[in-house]
Amino acid sequence: MIAASSFSNQLASEAVPTWQQALAAAISDPLELLTCLQLDLSWLPQARAAARLFPLRVPRGFVARMRPRDPHDPLLRQVLPLGEELAITPAYHFDPVGDHDSRKATGVLQKYAGRVLLIATGACAVHCRYCFRRHFPYADDTASTGGWEEALAALRIDTSVREVILSGGDPLNLNDRRLGDLTRALTEIPHIKRLRIHTRLPVVLPERVDAGLLQWLTAVPLQKVMVLHINHAHEIDATVRKACRDIAATGTTLLNQAVLLKGVNDDPLTLATLSEELFASGVLPYYLHMLDRVQGAAHFEVDEARARAILHSLMGELPGYLVPRLVREIPGAASKTPVPFWPESGC
After folding, report:
1. pLDDT band at 138 (very low <50, low <70, confident <90, very high)
2. What is the maximal distance between C-alpha atoms in the chain?
3. Are 218 and 179 in contact (CB under 8 A)?
4. Global pTM exceeds 0.85
5. Closest among 275, 262, 266 to 308, alpha carbons compared
6. What would the mean pLDDT of 149-156 be, rounded to a whole number?
7. N or C: at which end does the chain have fewer Cβ atoms within 10 angstroms?
8. Contact between 200 and 125 (Cβ < 8 Å)
């Protein structure tokens, strides 16, 4: 006969982990990642050197979608630190999109008319190796510092702001209580009509889309848009599809932005498959970004001629609503800048 205390402990150990527990269990050691995927440990010295500059972090559920023994797996390539990150590359920058110059208050950035971005947290569930904010000073410049008051004050003053974008880091790293505190304050500002959430958690850590998060989303009275970041169809499994369906059921519009990455998704078939999988999951393709030229990510760049050729193929294969807009971010521009379909002739 099993003692009651032993039975309780057994139940607790067999319970499905909460999203916080799954996040805490993320892999942060290159040796563990390489071993888990049965990869050659000759990669280890450079992986550790690159991880000292920008730490490795990847949830185990995301790793489970990778192909073992394949160093070129498109999901692995997004997260594995490589020796190429150690090179200093001309024309690549530590602030490639002009975050510093768009600062409006602590953790508050405004680049475009009518919308403001809040750096809600510096924490992410996954560290993408091409991240344009891999050098961002999160310790000094996060909107949640001081209980959001400086950020909220800036928003109250500027009546031209209609949309608030929660970014980071990843805003869904915040717990439901903190998200609720923030959005209740935002709804008290009469000129704010929309809430946009930029997040990768429903993809890399779908456990985050739990009853508490869905309750929070349902209760937000603002128009809600969630922009996911998915670069390859292999990122979408049954748990991600369910997370997307549950989010959509709260009245939230789901969009996706991808980054065009060499060795990950730089061919038409891969991107066409991604668009089809996104739409089947209730997510509309939105942007396909040219790589932001951040130091440490030059090995991911796809040249513009190749990007145009890929877009041309997509337009011939997919209905227009499944073709994302090919754009780049230019510091100081009034919006994302579309990459012209045809190169300028120079005439």
Report:
1. confident
2. 88
3. no
4. yes
5. 266
6. 95
7. C
8. yes
Supply the pLDDT for residue 4. Answer: 45
Residue corresponding to tokens 């120079």: 346
Q: How far is CA 132 from CA 113, 169, 203, in A?
A: 22, 11, 19
36-80 pLDDT, tens digit per residue, is: 999 999 999 999 999 999 999 999 999 999 999 999 999 999 999
Domains and CATH numbers, the chain: 19-86 (no CATH), 100-338 (3.20.20.70)
Distance CA 92, CA 108 (A): 24
E strand segments, the chain: 103-105, 108-109, 115-121, 163-168, 194-199, 223-228, 252-259, 284-289, 325-328, 337-338
For residue 68 the two structure tokens come to 């073992």
Report the half-sphere exposure of 63 (CA within 13 A, side-chain side): 27
With H, G, I as helix, E, B as strand and everything else as coil, classify residue 323.
coil
Give whole-number Cα distances, 9 to 18, 72, 317, in Å: 16, 41, 55
pLDDT given at position 10: 46
Question: DSSP states of 131-161 as a string?
Answer: -TTTT--TTT--TTTTTTHHHHHHHHH-TT-
Question: Cβ(324)–Cβ(288) under 8 Å?
Answer: yes
Q: Among residues of the chain, what percentage have pLDDT more than 70?
A: 93
238-248 and 211-219 helices cross at what angle (nearest 10)? Answer: 30
Q: What does the alpha-carbon distance between residue 105 and residue 101 come to, in Å, rounded to a whole number? A: 11
Q: Say how far apart CA 178 and CA 172 lie, in whole Å.
A: 10
What pLDDT does 15 receive?
A: 55
DSSP 40: -
CB atoms within 10 A of CB 319: 9
What is the Cα Rg of the chain in Å? 21
Per-residue pLDDT of 118-134, as tens digits, reads 999 999 999 999 999 99
